[in-house]
Amino acid sequence: MTGVPWMPVSAFDALNWLGLLAFALAGALDGADNDLDVLGVAVLGVVTALGGGITRDLLVDRTPVALTATADVLVVLAGVLVAVFLVRNGRRISTDSLAVQIPDAVGLSAFAATGAIVAWDSGLSAFGVLVCAMLTGTGGGAIRDLLVGRTPGILVEDFYATCALAGATAFWLLRSAGAPRPTGVAACVGIAFVLRALAIRYDWHLPTVG
After folding, report:
1. Which residues contact residue 108 at a Cβ distance below 8 angstroms, ignoring those fewer than 6 apart?
2. Which letter does DSSP use for residue 7 in this model?
3. Which of 106, 102, 113, 107 shows the shortest CA–CA distance to 187?
4. In which residue ranges of the chain is pLDDT below 50?
């Protein structure tokens, strides 16, 4: 169980599972697009889904939820199996397609919220909330990119981590102003997802230095 005191267990878990399922699917499809074998596809799906959350939990000095919650692992495996089913049935899906990018955007927004929640409940500062939200939302994808020999997308002008930071900022501002916590969560998820969807639609990128 991954619930937190202020939110019903089922509600928090639903948000967490949404992110896990979406990232596992996106990661596994990425593995298939890179012509990895079955094990490689599974590893990429698992790493994408769990990498950010494990990093976050280690930062706040708690046992990673992924190592204790069987349900989380089952959700991740379900996402991997869906990806394998799609590929085995002849549906080669590019990592640039909406079939990968939309689930990835869902995972980013859901995990930005769970990262912000955990950081807030751990008593971290505004900076800590932003860092945990960003790492939870982007950490798994960064590890995935490294495993397939790519520079992590968050480092090469992609408008990605910015979405998680914007959502987490809204969460922190609302909570600091006394807004109900579910309101902060909804704002975080909504802002992160809408920004990422717009970035995909209009090909937004951060400017380079040079």
Report:
1. 19, 137, 138, 141, 160, 163, 164, 192, 193, 196
2. B
3. 113
4. 1, 6
Q: How many CB atoms lie under 10 A from the CB of residue 200?
A: 17
Model pTM above 0.85: yes
* Residue type at 103 in one-letter notation: P
Query: Tokens at residue 80, please?
Result: 């991997």
Cβ atoms of 44 and 104 within 8 Å: the answer is no
> Could you tell me the end-to-end alpha-carbon distance of the chain, in angstroms, rounded to an integer?
47
d(CA 29, CA 155): 22
Q: Would you say 71 and 17 are in contact if contact means Cβ atoms under 8 Å apart?
A: yes
Cα 30 to Cα 11: distance, rounded to the nearest angstrom:
29
**Cα angle for residues 49, 129, 175 (degrees, 5° grid):** 115
CA–CA separation, 114 vs 131, rounded Å?
12
How far apart are the C-alpha atoms of 34 and 26, rounded to whole Å?
A: 12
Domain ranges of the chain: 9-202
Cβ neighbors of 109 (< 8 A, separation 6 or more) are: 137, 163, 164, 167, 188, 189, 190, 192, 193, 196
Residue 1 has a pLDDT of: 47
- Give the pLDDT score at 73: 93
